[in-house]
Amino acid sequence: MKIGILSRNNNLYSTRRLVEAARVRGHEVRVIDTLAIAIEIGVADEPDMGIKVIESPRRQGRRWGMLPDATTFLPQVDAIIPRIGASITYYGLTVVRQFEANGVLTTAASQAIAQSRDKLQSLQIMHRAGLPVPKTAVIVKPEALYSAIQAVGPPPVVVKLIQGTQGRGVILARNWQTTAAVLEKLRAYNKQALVQEYVSEAEGRDIRIIVVGDRCVAAMMRVAPDGEFRANLHRGGTAVPITLDSETEQLALAAARAHGLSVGGIDIIESERGPLLLEVNSSPGIEGIETATGKDVAGEIIHFLERQNKRKRGAD
């Protein structure tokens, strides 16, 4: 297979591991800078052309050669692995959609990426699917913070920007006295936010699960450092491998399925009323979980694409 990895940085651990795993299994692979793909729509002298997608010449790899002309569509690949960062979500989705229109396999469909990237829409999807999530309120204006806190329960509560990654834009309002400070931060961000109940029994721990296809291929418990409530490894958290019980495993699979994700990172916390879904990530980092568990997550993702490609060839 020819596999394209949409990534802005080919030195990132996740990107390097995916390249390595693909080559070990005998595939051609190239890293494609998502922002190096230019899109032209409705070209005046070519009314029937529709949408053109041209890769910037400075990004074209020597191994596969130069694209022959400016009207060439996307680089010819059989499958893509989108690693779309939050800052380029909108344009990244456009590029993924064009690959999809060309019949290219993907580990994350454009719609699935969009749904998981928007925390509010993601929670709505999971709630409609009957999946357990923390009590949540949405605020459009910062002044609604006090009412939202009353709706989900007394402080402490967690305040999250609707779009954010790696624990950024997540604030803990510990009591009514600190709410004023949180309110000022919300005014500075000037974005919609979610207010969620704080599950104290989780004690700064959560579970990250990597789903690939219809399997949970790796799981770890993340523990926040002293004085921190976010367990993200980027925030100094630590991780240990765990074996999932059946309920948690099925919950993770159901969350990925509800979003339409073939590959995803599912975050879950344990509560007195059972496991609760926190978030779904369409571009989960694999360094932390491969290091903690020793599992070949990158290899599992490539193997998934192999199976999908085999099914596609059989259907054709």
| CATH architecture field of the largest domain | 2-Layer Sandwich
| Tally of discrete structural domains | 3
Number of strands: 15
User: Which CATH first-tier class of the largest domain would you pick?
Assistant: Alpha Beta
Radius of gyration: 21 Å
Mean pLDDT across residues: 84
Helix residue percentage: 25-40%
Summarize the helix and strand pattern as letters: EHEEEEHEHHEHEEHEEEEHEEHH
Strand content: 25-35%
In what order do the strands lie side by side in the largest sheet? 13-12-11-14-15
The N- to C-terminal Cα distance equals: 16 Å
Largest sheet: 5 strands, antiparallel
Q: CATH homologous superfamily name of the largest domain?
A: ATP-grasp fold, B domain
SS-derived structural category? alpha+beta
Label the overall shape.
globular
Instruction: Return residue spans where pLDDT drops below 50 for at least 5 consecutive residues.
Output: 46-51, 58-73
In DSSP terms, counting alpha (H) and pi (I) runs of 4 or more, how many helices? 9
Named CATH topology of the largest domain: D-amino Acid Aminotransferase, Chain A, domain 1
